[in-house]
What does this fold into?
Amino acid sequence: MSTDISLVLSKDGSHTLLNTILNETYHSRNGALQESIHVYIENGLLIFKELEKVIVLEVGFGTGLNALLTWNKAEELKLNVEYHTLEPFPIKSEITAQLNYPSLLEAEEPRSAERFKRMHDAAWEEKVVLSEYFTIYKYQSTLEEKALPLNTFNVCYFDAFAPNHQEDVWKESNFKKVFESMHDGGILTTYCAQSNFKKTLKAAGFQVEKLKGPKWKKEMTWGRKFK
It folds into this structure.
């Protein structure tokens, strides 16, 4: 994949990035920040906030926005989060340094800029303890390549590029792999609401649920694992 990337301002004032080869953005042009909060925090992480520890699998580290929001929420709630994230094509630091998420989150969490930098600077392929409540594992790998532990993750943030741009990522074998890696009762949460994707998710073993989408988007999707 080419590294040709440009900065784009989404409707809520937060940045996203445009992959100019795929002609696809990393987040919704309707609002990167509000989409991530709605899909991955409110309808992902917070479902498990009563647990002593939440283990997250993210498919698509990208800009690091989901991880930053998760770290901030973990500190706020004093929630122990172990965060595993896959990204075969890491974004260069000169690009991530331009993203405005830390400044937008500064009023709510003044340490956002420091956390964003530390998270991006964290070593790949190893455990990095960033705080008492947040540990990250970054893997420069595709979902197809990465061996996942069985019955481990509470929640999966599925945030890959859309199926029409990365069809191979959204194949049934990948979702079966994720299904097997999740605890009973675990949730896969994603912005995608395409009907073919929902059929694939169901065929992989998930119970599919349709949820209200973020602002300017009608729907989003859950896949729940029940034995």
User: Anything to note?
Assistant: The chain has a mean pLDDT of 96. The CA atoms of residues 40 and 46 lie 9 Å apart. The domain at 31-224 is CATH 3.40.50.150 (Rossmann fold).
